[in-house]
Amino acid sequence: MSRDITEELLSCAVCNSTRSHQQKEPLQLHPVPDLPWSTLATDIFEWHGKRYLVLVDSYSGWFEIDLLRDVTSSTVITKLKRHFSVFGTPHTLISDNAGHYASQHFKDFAKQWDFVHMTSSPEYPQSNGLAERAVRSAKQLMERSHRDGTDVFLNLVNLRNIPRDLTLGSPAERLMSRQTRAAIPVCTKLLQPNPKDAQLIRTQLLNKRLILKHHYDISSSPLKPLAEGQVIRMQTPK
């Protein structure tokens, strides 16, 4: 009897169209990179009516902010090239599926510059959580600078020198093995290269991601795999 009811509900178009969202699945983590500037994530955000590009390094947490005159592939690529020319070409670049990243122009750019372009799941920003967190940090920094009347890029230099903890150090230390000179006085010794233990950094980064996954997975559960040829109903974004 219960099986008949279940089959009837599954075949009911009205019932299926008004069903609640499916249970979210456990979070899938991106691998922890072995090197600085090897795995990057990028996104575009709007602040005070203007659009900006953010580019963040998964290993160091170092992020860049660029004002965009438009959001065409050509403009985005030009900004990325400038950063790649300074720090080198990454192995992997993660983005969403927006048109400026999904264009043939961007595919040609990835091929010419020899990096893997990975895209996050549509309508699922958590799959590009690295860029999402960088956007939040960038907006907070820009808003504080705007309200205080201070230089946003000077504040960005200071932010990059702030240690996250004793193991990870600061974004500048993880990316360049040293602090950078800023308005805040710093000991000359800290400006000299002093590489941190890469294995300790990877372990710490992995532990942080596992904690994030643990909290996310509390309200998630695996879904049954789909069979080939199975009829499905897909929920479209509003």
Automatic annotation (TrEMBL):
Pfam families: rve. InterPro entries: Integrase_cat-core, Retrovirus_Pol_polyprotein, RNaseH-like_sf, RNaseH_sf. Transmembrane segments: none annotated. One of its GO terms (molecular function) is nucleic acid binding. Residues 32-203 form the Integrase catalytic domain. One of its GO terms (biological process) is DNA integration. It comes from the Eukaryota. PANTHER family: INTEGRASE CATALYTIC DOMAIN-CONTAINING PROTEIN, PROTEIN CBG26694. This is Integrase catalytic domain-containing protein.
